[in-house]
C-alpha cells in the first residue's frame, strides 16, 4: 500500500512518515532517511498521507493521518503533501518545544482548547463554526514556560475550557471532566515525552478548568456558554 516512506529524527527518537503515491514526500523540508533507523526508539507509521487513485466515482479525498486519526483533508494531493511537510517541521521541534495535538478555539470571545477530533472537514466542527465557534488553522499547539498555549501564528493564550471526546450515552447528554483526569487526557496528546515540570505546569493550568463533551454541537455550545460566558 505504501509507495514511499521516510524517517524523521526528533531528539533521540525517529518517526516514520509515509505516502500511498510516489513523489508526495518530496515536499518534506526537514532531514529524513529512507532507511529504518537503528535503536529501539523509532515509531512506525506516525504520519500517513493516503491518496485514493482508483477510478471509482466515490473516491476518498487525500487525507493526512496521525496514527489512525485524520488531521487534514483536501481535494488536492499537493495541498495535503504541503500540510504533511508542515507537520514534519512540527515533529522535529517537539522534543525541544512542548507540542500537543490540540487545536485553539474560541466561543463568544473566550479561548479554549479543542480535542474532540482534528481534521478540517469534520462535520461536527463545521456545525460548531455555524454556531459561532472559531478555530485556529492547524491541529498542533505549543505550551510555553508561562503555562500558555501558543498557535502557529505566535498568539499565546490561557484557555478557559476544553472540548473533549464524549462518553455520554444520550445524544444531548453532557460529559464533564476536570482535575487529574483532564490533565492525564491532555498529557496523552503530547508529542514526544512530557517532563515532570511540564506536567506540573499543565496541572496548574487545568486544575480548575472544565472539559466538556457532547454528541451534538448545539448542547455543547449551550453548556460552554453557561459555564464560561
Explain what this protein looks like in three dimensions.
The chain is an alpha+beta fold and 229 residues long. The chain has 5 helices and 16 strands. It folds into 2 domains: 4-93, no CATH class; 99-228, no CATH class. Helices cover 25% and strands 28% of the residues. A hairpin with a 2-residue loop joins β7 (103-107) and β8 (110-114). The longest helix is centred in the middle third of the chain and has 17 residues, at 77-93. The radius of gyration is 18 Å and the shape is globular. The N and C termini lie far apart (48 Å).
Secondary structure elements and pairings:
Blueprint: E1 4-10, E2 13-19, E3 42-50, E4 63-66, E5 69-73, H1 77-93, E6 99-100, E7 103-107, E8 110-114, H2 123-130, E9 134-135, E10 141-143, E11 149-150, E12 156-157, E13 162-163, E14 174-177, H3 179-187, E15 190-191, H4 196-206, E16 211-214, H5 217-228
Parallel strand pairs: 2-3, 8-13, 13-16
Antiparallel strand pairs: 1-2, 3-4, 4-5, 6-10, 6-15, 7-8, 7-9, 10-11, 11-12, 14-16
Biggest β-sheet strands, sense, barrel: 6 strands, mixed
Number of extended strands: 16
Shape: globular
State the separation between the terminal residues, measured CA to CA. 48 Å
Average of per-residue pLDDT values: 88
Amount of beta strand: 25-35%
Relative helix content: 10-25%
Compose a concise summary of this entry.
With 229 residues, the protein is an alpha+beta fold. The chain has helices spanning 77-93, 123-130, 179-187, 196-206, 217-228, and strands at residues 4-10, 13-19, 42-50, 63-66, 69-73, 99-100, 103-107, 110-114, 134-135, 141-143, 149-150, 156-157, 162-163, 174-177, 190-191, 211-214.
Amino acid at each position: 500500500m505504501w509507495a514511499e516512506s521516510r524517517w524523521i529524527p526528533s531528539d533521540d527518537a525517529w518517526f516514520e512518515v509515509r505516502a500511498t503515491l510516489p513523489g508526495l514526500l518530496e515536499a518534506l523540508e526537514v532531514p529524513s532517511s529512507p532507511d529504518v533507523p537503528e535503536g529501539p526508539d523509532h515509531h512506525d507509521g506516525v504520519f500517513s498521507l493516503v491518496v485514493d487513485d482508483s477510478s471509482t466515482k466515490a473516491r476518498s479525498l487525500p487525507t493526512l493521518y496521525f496514527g489512525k486519526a485524520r488531521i487534514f483533508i483536501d481535494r488536492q494531493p499537493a495541498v495535503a503533501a504541503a500540510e504533511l511537510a508542515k507537520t514534519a517541521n512540527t515533529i522535529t521541534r517537539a522534543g525541544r518545544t512542548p507540542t500537543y495535538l490540540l487545536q485553539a478555539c474560541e466561543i463568544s470571545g473566550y479561548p479554549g482548547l479543542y480535542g474532540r477530533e482534528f481534521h478540517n472537514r469534520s462535520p461536527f466542527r463545521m456545525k460548531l463554526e455555524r454556531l459561532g465557534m472559531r478555530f485556529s488553522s492547524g491541529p498542533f499547539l505549543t505550551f510555553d514556560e508561562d503555562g500558555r498555549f501558543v498557535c502557529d501564528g505566535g498568539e499565546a493564550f490561557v484557555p478557559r475550557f476544553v472540548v473533549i471526546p464524549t462518553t455520554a450515552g444520550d445524544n444531548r447528554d453532557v460529559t464533564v471532566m476536570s482535575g487529574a483526569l483532564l490533565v492525564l487526557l491532555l498529557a496523552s496528546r503530547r508529542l514526544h515525552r512530557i517532563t515532570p515540570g511540564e506536567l506540573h505546569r499543565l496541572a496548574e493550568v487545568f486544575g480548575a478548568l472544565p472539559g466538556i463533551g457532547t454528541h451534538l454541537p448545539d448542547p455543547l455550545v449551550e453548556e460552554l456558554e453557561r459555564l464560561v460566558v
